[in-house]
């Protein structure tokens, strides 16, 4: 039986007096007022799910890298300006990593080591650029980057061969790399609220794409092949 501790929405300002069993596998501290957590949390080597979302955390210590059995980690809706490189050591992180709605100005290159991760949410931060090499994210199926200040997407995005959803809404993109057409499993591509003026023709190779959202790109010159996309059943939103 999974050892669980669910303390969400309790108004906690600390974990003083709360026992964290060494056998704990699931810890939910969502929606409290925590500014820090005790060091003993990072020694819970059997922990598989950790939810620290919607607190007041300003930092995460490097010791988090010891949680090698963690498959789900939620750090969203805090006040984090940096993430430790040790997140890249979480080799068990397969399901979900959520760091949205923080104060991040850089996308940690260490996250590109998470080769088994399926979902990565890094929305609503202040990230202007991505690492040049994203190729380590080989299992990623859903990548959410909307609401940042991204000015470009690296060519290596096209190496994410398992990707099914790419969400880039509300950035500052004027172009996309031609490698976007290599995302052979892509189903959804959300490009709303950018500054795109054109689209790479390589997008026509995305045979599994069923939704392409182009709304609120005021300067976009629509290519003629959009009609072909619609004819084969892809929803194109202009």
UniProtKB/TrEMBL annotation:
Organism per entry: Amycolatopsis japonica
Entry keyword set: Leucine-rich repeat, Repeat
SUPFAM superfamilies per record: L domain-like (SSF52058)
Keyword Repeat: yes
Residue spans crossing the bilayer: none
Protein name as annotated: Disease resistance R13L4/SHOC-2-like LRR domain-containing protein
GO CC, alphabetical: cytoplasm
The Disease resistance R13L4/SHOC-2-like LRR domain, residue ranges: 156-220
């Amino acid at each position: 039986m999974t050892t669980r501790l669910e303390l969400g929405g309790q108004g906690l300002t600390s974990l003083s007096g709360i026992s964290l069993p060494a056998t704990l596998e699931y810890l939910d501290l969502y929606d409290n007022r925590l500014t820090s957590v005790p060091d003993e949390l990072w020694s819970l080597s059997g922990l598989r799910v950790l939810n620290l979302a919607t607190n007041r955390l300003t930092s995460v210590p490097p010791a988090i890298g010891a949680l090698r059995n963690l498959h789900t980690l939620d750090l969203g809706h805090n006040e984090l300006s940096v993430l430790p490189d040790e997140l890249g050591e979480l080799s068990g992180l397969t399901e979900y990593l959520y760091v949205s709605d923080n104060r991040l100005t850089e996308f940690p290159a260490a996250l590109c080591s998470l080769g088994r991760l399926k979902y990565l949410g890094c929305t609503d931060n202040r990230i202007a650029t991505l690492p040049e090499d994203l190729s380590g994210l080989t299992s990623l199926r859903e990548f959410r980057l909307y609401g940042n200040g991204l000015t470009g997407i690296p060519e290596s995005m096209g190496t994410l061969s398992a990707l099914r959803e790419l969400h880039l809404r509300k950035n500052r993109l004027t172009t996309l790399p031609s490698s976007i057409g290599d995302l052979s499993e892509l189903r959804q591509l959300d490009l709303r609220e950018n500054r795109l003026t054109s689209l790479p023709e390589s997008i026509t190779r995305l045979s599994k794409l069923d939704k392409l959202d182009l709304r609120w790109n005021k300067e976009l010159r629509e290519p003629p092949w959009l009609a072909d996309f619609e004819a084969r059943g892809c929803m194109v939103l202009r």
